[in-house]
Amino acid sequence: MLAYQEENFRLRAELAAKDDKLTKEKAKLQEDMQKQYEAMKRQAEDEVRQGLMDSIDKMATENATLMAQVAEYNAQKKQWALERDMMNKRLSQAQSQQVQLQDNSVKSQSAQNSRVQELLARLEQVEAESKGMRQQADGFRSKAQHLEELLVSKEHEMAQLQTTKNESEYAALSGLFKEFMNDIYFHFQDAFDEDTEFTGKEIVMAIRKILKQNTMDILAKLEEFYQQQVQHRQ
After folding, report:
1. For 73-91, how does the pLDDT look when each residue is reduced to its tens digit (9 = 90+)?
2. Is the entire prediction scored with pTM above 0.85?
3. Where does this protein have coiled-coil stretches (predicted)?
């Protein structure tokens, strides 16, 4: 009986460790994704200046890196699922042994019922945790599919842009970039009054706010420009 209890406790500890590892891996993946997003946001202004082709190439590379990370996580998730199945089988075997030991023990019927209820409660908890992990896995698969569709869309846009390099498109794009730079310049001019003194923190916060706002506007206008070019080519 003592050997079974030790084995049962060890199995529970291993199961808890696996769950904790999965939680940490999920948190790390989310943190890496957030860091990549922040890095992309900080580099947005430089990417706009460097030109449309460099910006699209960089976005495709970063999307590919993110897809690789998602694929790696999915592989780890499958491995964890296999290990969980093995642990569940071992737990089932241990439970069968426990039933046999209980049949041969001198414990009262009430004590046996209490132990069975405890094991059933633990099984329900394990099933609930497994269901939660499956739901999380479905969520990651959905995100991965969305990223894959976005990457395919951007690759299609790059292919179309590379095959339609004509003077009218470059002239329109040049005017669009000029408009972007003028908007950013006037936003900075409005934010920083020459007669007002600012702290370093205030300057940094103002710059971040302007870059964030203009980055979203620029991406929206670029997307609209791409759609117009695609319609013109059709």
Report:
1. 788 888 888 888 887 788 7
2. no
3. 12-164
